Amino acid sequence: MKTYDAKDIRNVLLVGHGGAGKTTLLEALLFASGGITRMGTVEDGNTVSDHDPDEQRRGISVSLAMAPIEWKGVKINALDAPGTADFVGDLRNAIRAADAVIIVVSAVDGVEVQTEYAWELAVDEGLPRAIFVNKLDRERADFQSTLDQLVSSFGTQVAPFELPIGKEHEFGGVADLLHEKADLYPNGPMAEESEWPDDIHAMADPAREKLVEAVAESDDALIEEYLEQGTLPEEHIVSGAKAGFAAARLAPVLVGSASKAIGIDRLLDFIVEEFPSPLDRGPITVIGKGGEAKERPSDPAGTTTAFVFKTVSDPFVGHVTMFRVLSGRIRPDSSIYNATQNTEERLGQLFTQKGKEHETIAEVPAGDIGAVAKLQASHTGDTWSTKDDPVQLQPVELPEPLLAYAISPATKGDEDKLATGLARLREEDPSFHVARNEETHELVIYGMGEAHLDVQMSRLKAKFGVDVHHTPAKIAFRETVRGKAAAQGRHVKQTGGHGQYAICSIELEPLPRGEGFVYEDKITGGAIPQQFIPSIEKGIVKTMAEGVISGNPMVDIKVTLVDGKFHTVDSSDMAFQIAGSLALKEAVEKAGVVLLEPIVQLSVVVPESFTGDIMGDLNAKRGKIQGVEQIGGGKQRINALVPQAEVARYVIDLRSMTGGRGAFTMTFSHYEEMPSHLASKVIEEYQRSREEAHKR
């Protein structure tokens, strides 16, 4: 593939809800442009972009894919982002590499939650947004209903540039509202120009009038002309539409069927003619040393700056890194400075990717997208620059992963392979987290949902040969005491030679929530030598960390050392540690143990029609509703305090209840006393596991 100038490049991201047809649309774009000779299907698992075994098995995209398309002297770098909420990390990073987005919407299902999410991300980045209404050939496809939903969700800037000719299985063409002509598709993906059918005027005439109004409203000069003349000449409509789209003040609605390649050549023309090039988008702001803001224009002669938007680890090849060059140019077999990681990295051969196929290229200039195989990993989200002028893009903000699994290798001795595999997967996907929970002694992986974690565990096995067992991660409870108590810890043993002798008396009392631990020494008269006072505290603290009845740490207690005895020969540091531990256990038993559970602050965003159901569900989960607020777009935010144990897997419940249209965030708030019947179950489960471990 030849090297293109920035003015002849279009970087386009396909976004939308899962199942809207983004992967099939990319397939149709490649087919119509001659990039492939026949179209594959998601059902058959032979599309260009869904080449991962997990994608073929599940029938959904789980990873970002890219493919270059050449059309009328322009290179279109098409990025296909997963539409499932579990894989939102790829979408968040890919949007930084694009200059405009195409939001794919199913004419059968209409606007869905990921449609709205993708729109909001594009708005935040200031990217132009075109909407492609797909699947107009399917049963129950309804263009007008879909258009009404789009306008309701995103406002009057949504303007239809095209109308479908025919409904459902009779859909066979596109009415062009800008130029008042029709394109029909009786044979293949190339349109045959025609006149508007007589029966479409009733719908097309008022739609064109609304389009003219939308174009006029996007520009002050045009609105004045429209108000004076009552209409706009065609050349002003066309130029105004282009300017409004480029400035993200107008969202054109285009129509078609990806599976039948209807309207695809028109979409390619629209991308080439109307979508901004990297030059049109203007300079990118980067952050230099000391937080200084700098601008990087899309200039191949400028200072080298590139953004890594995707890294894929391969145990045989190394790391395949996809990057967008913002300024300067990247050449093969050269060195690059990773300003994010503060490391020098060696580049190998450069290539462009079309799914899993690679085509070697001579260089990647400013404005273009490329890929490189490297031995050393660049993490997704890194910025490349020069060592003498290191700069970075603002970090991509990713949502916190909400679902946690505790994992362990299925085969003993695979711990090192597991650690390597997890580190590689973390480099690929910043929304995937790994941590060792020191309280529960579990290795925990965190993901955006069940599918996200299932895919990561599948990749561990396929790429790194590590099969893992997984269970829901344990909830980190806490223990405390209900009342006051006094107890004596006695550790006296004589086994020949030096014995062990330590006796201590303590008083125990609860503290207010969040006070932690207080240790007070009230020994008088030298009942215990001063050097052993800290030993008693050490034994108490160790026992608190291990818990007394549930294996969870003990908090919010005060221990007062009031008396004790020692032996000049047999007393020791360890003996008094044991005595302190025994004293605490006895005092806790007398005072009564209380199990505390973590309470989280939950913020749930749902369409208004689901608010009552979700509030009822949260109440059933022992939640306390704090308030409901309107956030626009027909949605409401419900704020509640809920026990973490009740919502550890709520990401799955919420999607099921709302048909995928709900979303939530969760942050730790505080600890509260757990109901006794639930605490008993936790304690019983702990005691059972202790017994099983003892038997083993």
Structure description:
With 696 residues, the protein is α+β, with helices and mostly antiparallel strands. The protein has five domains: 6-281, Rossmann fold; 284-385, Translation factors (Elongation Factor Tu (Ef-tu), domain 3); 403-473, 2-Layer Sandwich (Alpha-Beta Plaits), CATH 3.30.70; 479-591, Ribosomal Protein S5, domain 2; 595-677, Alpha-Beta Plaits, CATH 3.30.70. Helix content is 30%, strand content 32%. The protein contains 18 helices and 36 strands. The chain is elongated.
Can you tell me the CATH superfamily of the largest domain? P-loop containing nucleotide triphosphate hydrolases
Please list the strands of the largest sheet in the order they lie side by side.
Answer: 18-17-23-14-15-22-19-20
| CATH-defined fold name of the largest domain | Rossmann fold
Radius of gyration: 32 Å
Largest sheet: 8 strands, antiparallel
The number of helical elements comes to 18
Mean pLDDT: 89
Which characteristics define this entry?
single chain, 696 residues, alpha+beta, Rossmann fold, Elongation Factor Tu (Ef-tu), domain 3, Alpha-Beta Plaits, 5 domains, 8-stranded antiparallel sheet, 7-stranded mixed sheet, 30% helix, 32% strand, elongated
